[in-house]
Amino acid sequence: MQQILAWNWPPEVDIQKESIRRYTGQAFTTVQGHVCHVIGGCDWEASVGFRYDIIFDDDAGEAADVVAMAMQDGKFRIDLFHCKFSGEDKPGARVDDLYAVCGQAARSVRWIGNPPKLLDHLVRRRRKRLRDRGQDRLIRGTEQLLKRFARSVPDSKVQFRVFAVQPGLSKARVGTGQNVVDVLAAVGAYLHDAVELDFNIICSP
Known about the structure:
Layout: E1 2-6, H1 31-39, H2 42-48, E2 54-57, E3 66-72, E4 75-83, H3 96-106, H4 109-112, H5 115-133, E5 138-140, H6 143-152, E6 157-170, H7 180-195, E7 199-204
Parallel strand pairs: 1-7, 4-6, 6-7
Antiparallel strand pairs: 2-3, 2-5, 3-4
Helix pairs in contact: 3-7, 5-6
């Protein structure tokens, strides 16, 4: 019900900085920025077997920090990446690093049953950011493509995946942290029981 994926985080990425928008000029040195960089690259595409058509920076008040979508072989894929900064500069097994990001992942269930609502949310969020700040939330793709996906979703088979991203967690030390295993297992069980989804955790080695 849960899969732990260990990423090697480059030294230029500050795992104590989260948002791609908060640190102007340093976007891809943050946790969220590095996620966008990785999932938009060839290695990730090779590992999952498809290329994202849309990569969307949803950020605070969001469905997920990063929403990535693809249409492949008649299936509509939506991946929700929830990102959180590390409480310390070195990975470990601190349960406090997990509460927020695991809570965000659990709240993903509100979108699983209503993909058109999610896509409408993304269009509205993009327009508001453009109007208020002149910034585009679309890292890859266009609003026209979002709208086309929204029209086709009811007739498509939708496959969701949920990822919690916490570079402050060390995969090698998961079993050593007090309550860490329990928190991960609880979220994994909830997502599986509520919407039959596996729980994916992206962390450090």
